[in-house]
Design brief:
Length: 565
């Protein structure tokens, strides 16, 4: 805006000094500005009638030839003539140059009194044109300086980020947001390699085109893959026409507006962590300026890579500490006498708290039931309340893991063949991206499975992909707890059997022997009784005593025991 005001003042000065009623200035496009066409009318009533299209043709002619054009032209000057127009009585067009560089063209129209422009007018116009060239150059230099300052400031922010407490996802969002603000890009993203699997990448942070917050996994091949493989940047002037262009299907339509794009490797400590993607809208002023900023974007990407590496290392160290602490605390708790359901809920709560899992649960096997498994705990975002000991079909991936004893880990779990959740869970689990199904094994026997899953696009998803062994450790702890609960139950049953054996010995040594003695004495007394009624009553008492003795033996020794004392 300051440049336009200054150029407008120069146009008005040229009109007054040359006695022209109209003036026009065409500023040539460069990597630091777009083409502009400015006009000035001393007599505003004549403004609408001026043939500006013809003037533009004349300015193009002047710009191409880098020669002055006058209408009518002086005799014998050999200069090209501007296309005539009834509204143009006289015209003077001079190139706007400074040193060897062209900045555009200045045009004066219709000298007062229907006179022709003179050599003095031409000299004056040339001086005005030189002033305009200086103004444009100063503006470009200021813009370059301001943009360099913005790039440096952005890089400084990333460096400062190393000193603060910021998580990896927040760091990536800052990178994409700042590179768009500085460069005027329409789209930016950070593509990181998936830990332990460089055949797959993930757009972990995205900004622009209404795609902010999305996290999409992509596979080879593609431009991002070639940059990560080679460690060399790729700059394309028309992204959608590049033969390596291979965006996520759901983004293809929105990315269609992009023209120039840069894929800069995120390299730190000689390791390529991923790619910084920056794209500009086709035909936009910012796209033209971006042509000279590849080096700035690459320097910014270098700072971003260093920042992301440091944040990732710090984050991994912090998460590793949390895993170790939680594992130790969980092991200590599970070594005590605990209830089975309480122990399994403790495992699930700790797992979700550290890993950020959106879904987690434990399903147990009943050796006597080969058709189903029972839930101990199963919870997650959008899931209906799942009570303990609900049976669900033993099928698909669950059955496969139980039979094979091998875990299943997938970045696209919800689309795996064999993912067969109960119908009430199907909608909630349809959003799962990363998923893990880990067997609970003790003494070579599969006791059940531990399930953990993350929503597609979760900020924890990409990090959790590298923490399979930590989840396995939690599964092992759950197995240990189940085995301990089983041992507890066996121990309690053994104590009960010991108590029953002690009681049986006491009964056999004292009560049953005493009852048997009483029975013998009653039988002896029966033989001495002469009274029929007395004999009958004593006989009934003996029978009751024998029946009671048999019942006691059945309780103590079991119904088939034939001990007769």
């Amino acid at each position: 805006m300051e440049l336009r005001r200054e150029l407008g003042e120069l146009l008005r000065s040229a009109c007054r000094m040359a006695g022209a009623s109209h003036a026009a200035l065409a500023v040539a496009e460069s990597n630091w500005n777009v083409a502009e066409f400015l006009t000035c009318d001393l007599d505003e009533q004549c403004g609408p009638d001026v043939a500006w299209p013809s003037v533009k043709e004349c300015l193009d002619l002047t710009s191409n030839s880098q020669r002055t054009v006058r209408v009518p032209a002086p005799e014998g000057d050999g200069l090209p003539e501007c296309p005539p127009h009834p509204q143009i009585t006289s015209l003077l067009a001079v190139p706007v140059r400074l040193r060897s560089e062209s900045y555009g063209c200045l045009c004066l129209l219709n000298k007062a009194g229907d006179a022709d422009f003179t050599d003095q007018d031409e000299e004056m116009a040339a001086e005005i044109a030189t002033s305009a060239a200086r103004a444009v150059e100063i503006s470009r230099l200021h813009r370059q300086r301001r943009r360099r300052e913005r790039w440096l400031k952005g890089a400084s922010e990333l460096t400062t980020m190393l000193l603060g407490e910021v998580d990896l996802y927040e760091a990536m969002r800052l990178v994409t947001r700042r590179v768009r603000e500085i460069s005027g890009a329409e789209f930016s993203s950070v593509v990181l390699c998936t830990p332990d699997d460089h055949s797959e990448f993930a757009y972990n942070a995205v900004d622009g085109l209404g795609l902010g917050g999305s996290v999409v996994r992509i596979h080879r091949p593609g431009i991002a893959a070639s940059v990560i493989d080679s460690g060399r940047p790729v700059v394309t002037n028309d992204l959608t026409q590049d033969e390596r262009y291979n965006p996520p299907v759901e983004w293809r339509e929105r990315l269609g507006v992009l023209g120039r794009a840069m894929f800069m490797p995120l390299t730190a400590s000689e390791q390529v962590l991923g790619t910084l993607v920056v794209g500009w809208r086709k035909g936009s002023p910012e796209e033209s300026m971006a042509a000279r900023e590849a080096q700035n974007v690459q320097i910014f990407a270098g700072h971003a890579a260093l920042a992301l590496q440091q944040v990732r290392v710090r984050h991994e160290r912090t998460r590793h500490g949390l895993w170790v602490e939680a594992t130790s605390r969980l092991a200590s708790l599970l070594l005590r006498e605990v209830d089975r359901d309480e122990a399994m809920r403790l495992v699930v709560d700790q797992l979700r708290g550290i890993s950020g899992a959106d879904f987690s649960g434990i399903l147990l096997v009943d050796p006597s039931d080969t058709d189903s498994v029972s839930t101990v705990v199963f919870e997650g975002v959008g899931l209906p309340s799942v009570p303990s000991d609900v049976n669900i079909p033993r099928q698909g991936l669950v059955a496969s893991v139980i039979e094979s004893g091998r875990r299943v880990v997938s970045a696209d779990y919800a689309r795996l063949e064999g993912h067969l959740p109960p119908s009430a869970w199907r909608v909630a689990l349809s959003v799962v991206g990363l998923g893990m199904l880990v067997p609970l094994v003790a003494d070579g026997q599969v006791l059940g499975v531990l399930f953990a899953a993350w929503r597609r696009g979760s900020p924890h998803e990409n990090i959790a992909a590298g923490e399979v062994e930590q989840v396995q450790t939690f599964a092992d702890l759950a197995s240990l707890a189940l085995q301990r609960v089983r041992t507890q139950n066996d121990h309690e049953e053994l104590l009960l059997l010991q108590d029953r054996q002690r009681i049986s010995h006491d009964l056999h040594d004292h009560v049953l022997q005493h009852m048997f003695g009483i029975s013998l004495r009653l039988k002896s007394a029966l033989d001495l009784q002469a009274d029929l009624e007395a004999r009958q009553r004593v006989g009934e008492a003996i029978e009751d005593l024998d029946e009671t003795s048999r019942q006691v033996r059945a309780v103590v020794f079991g119904p088939s025991h034939d001990d007769v004392g």
